[in-house]
């Protein structure tokens, strides 16, 4: 029987909502307009973290030898991303899993490197906020993923020892972060991160239905 955790900590982007593909496609379009490609193998370096880890902006400037008006381009790209996500719902199987975890009286939290305004907006819009006791985001700890700070901050807020937490992630930066925090980490890859090597994860599962079966099996 799998040892049930005291708390389950969910990443946000790419785990609760498939926001990452639309963001990648918008960046890919930016690169193609400049005559260059943006392979997923490069782009995924910043998934789950920020551009301090790897920056598509710096990379495009290096490729082209040019500088860009990033403030304008960022604004234009956000319009495209939000339009692409206007009808986006939770990832398949997420709501059923959250309901079962809640029914078994395990504590739930979101731990994300994204800004709080982005995460809260989605949780409210998709009526997921009530599931989570805490939402830990950029600014809640000194460093974001791949540093362990956000996950350690979540454990402290919840009053749960790190080794009693189960983390659900989709990125290498998230896996590195949770592992460094001393937490068991299960990965559910998505179409942006599916080619990455998650061999250091405790489990790699294809979807949330499989995750639920594994978590609650006798």
Provide the descriptors you would attach to this structure in a database record:
single chain; 218 residues; alpha/beta; Rossmann fold; 2 domains; 6-stranded parallel β-sheet; 9 helices; 11% strand
Describe this structure in words.
The protein is an alpha/beta fold and 218 residues long. The chain has two domains: 7-18 and 91-216, HAD superfamily/HAD-like (Rossmann fold), CATH 3.40.50; 20-84. The protein has helices spanning 20-33, 40-43, 56-64, 70-84, 94-103, 116-125, 149-158, 172-180, 208-216, and strands at 7-10, 107-111, 134-136, 165-169, 184-187, 203-204. The protein has a six-stranded parallel beta sheet, with helices on both faces. The longest helix has 15 residues, at 70-84.
Question: What is the residue-averaged pLDDT?
Answer: 96
Helical stretch tally? 9
Class computed from helices, strands and strand pairing: alpha/beta
Strand content is: 5-15%
């Amino acid at each position: 029987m799998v040892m049930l955790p005291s708390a389950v900590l969910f990443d946000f982007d790419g785990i609760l909502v498939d926001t990452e593909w639309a963001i990648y496609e918008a960046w890919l379009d930016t690169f193609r307009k400049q005559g260059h490609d943006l392979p997923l193998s490069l782009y995924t370096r910043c998934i789950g973290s920020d551009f301090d880890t790897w920056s598509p902006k710096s990379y495009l400037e290096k490729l082209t030898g040019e500088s860009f008006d990033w403030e304008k381009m960022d604004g234009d790209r956000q319009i495209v991303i939000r339009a692409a996500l206007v009808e986006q719902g939770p990832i398949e199987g997420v709501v059923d899993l959250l309901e079962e975890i809640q029914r078994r009286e395990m504590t739930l939290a979101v731990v994300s490197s994204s800004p709080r305004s982005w995460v809260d907006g989605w949780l409210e819009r998709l009526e997921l906020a009530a599931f989570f006791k805490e939402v830990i985001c950029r600014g809640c700890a000194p460093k974001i993923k791949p540093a362990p700070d956000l996950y350690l901050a979540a454990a402290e807020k919840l009053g749960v020892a790190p080794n009693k937490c189960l983390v659900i992630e989709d990125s290498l930066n998230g896996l590195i972060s949770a592992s460094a925090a001393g937490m068991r980490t299960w990965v559910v890859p998505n179409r942006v991160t599916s080619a990455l090597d998650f061999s250091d994860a405790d489990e790699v599962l294809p979807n949330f239905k499989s995750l639920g079966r594994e978590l609650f099996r006798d």
